[in-house]
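Handout, section B. The chain below has 418 residues.
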Amino acid sequence: MIAVEQWAEIRRLHNSEGVPIKEISRRLGIARNTVRSALASSEPPKYTRARKGSLVDAYEPEIRKLLAEYPTMPATVLAERIGWPHSMTVLKDRVRAIRPEYRGVDPADRIEHKPGDTTQCDLWFPKSPIPLGGGQSAQMPVLVMTLAFSRFISATMIPSRTAGDILAGMWLLLGQLGAVTHRLWWDRESAIATSAGKPTIDAAAFAGTLSSKLVIAPPRDPEFKGMVERHNGYLGGSFMAGRQFAGPDDFNAQLTEWLATANSRTVRVLGARPVDALAEDRGSMLDLPPIAPTTGIRSTVRLARDYYVRIDSVDYSVDPRVIGRLVEVVASLQTVTVTCAGDVVAEHQRSWSRRGTVTSPEHVELAKQLRVEYWDRARQQPATSSFTDPVVRSLSDYDDLYDVDFLGGVALGSEVSA
């Protein structure tokens, strides 16, 4: 076989300069038949190595038989069923190549997003634990929202994945944008959607207040919101690399600074920077409502004697003067506020710890005073004895009550203590 350079030179000499085959053979020192073959070929010569047999060839009929009946059977199970004695890499490569013949393919269409139409939302969990104070640390959720048209990324760490905290995080990020898209895409996060794929009551009320539509992803469809999923990977690979955090506030401060840079980089599919495309995106969005939607963790409880309420595994003290009364507890991303009949009876900075107690010294002092007053009143009351003399009743009264007439052997009128 001649080299590509010789093939190109033969065609140039013969077609461009009119050199005869015999002369080309003499000049290049190759056989005339080789020259004729090169001129007859319209494509450059390629070396093709003869395919060698594979260790999997002898097992392929059994593999195909199993895949025909069980298209999703894992390669490890296939190896066990066919008695595969060699490296799993070779077997997995062959199974990966032939499985689509039995399982079929699931094409993913490209979707063209219009300005102001869609926001993809998701929770991302950084692998590095975040210090929470008191020697505690945990993997905290980060709410990530991506505008589908401009690819603009917004994100913030939130205390928990409860509906109240997720919706509070969404309202915070939407407030930074100053508008909301016509549709909000979510997967089947338990706080946002039921197992049947319907929005939860809290999520539906939130979307209704915004006049936006909440769209829930179909089951087992990771491509549905692939844009924000890719951004999750981008955050994990680019933002987290080489960083350390003193706590959630420090995390959000560094994240905000990094997002300003990330949104200023040119996106290939847009041919522009997200921060520049945001203006067109925001121009087609809906205005935010004048009244904020209901967000945060909310509950109504009757204050117990220990004058504490619990929010997300952390206890917060309350004015002990309202013990026994109903109090309303509202926890935002930053504060915990407790009211009773419209009056604020406790206000604390929210703790993101997984467990703990937040106590106001004022509440402890009030409880001490109330305890002293209670026992002072108790000592002033006259002591009463709980002992009473037994009542003496005639046995005949019991006979009359139960309509019993004993004849002989029992003397009526005997007395017994009751």
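Note. Confidence is low (pLDDT under 50) at residues 409-418. Compare this with the example in section A.
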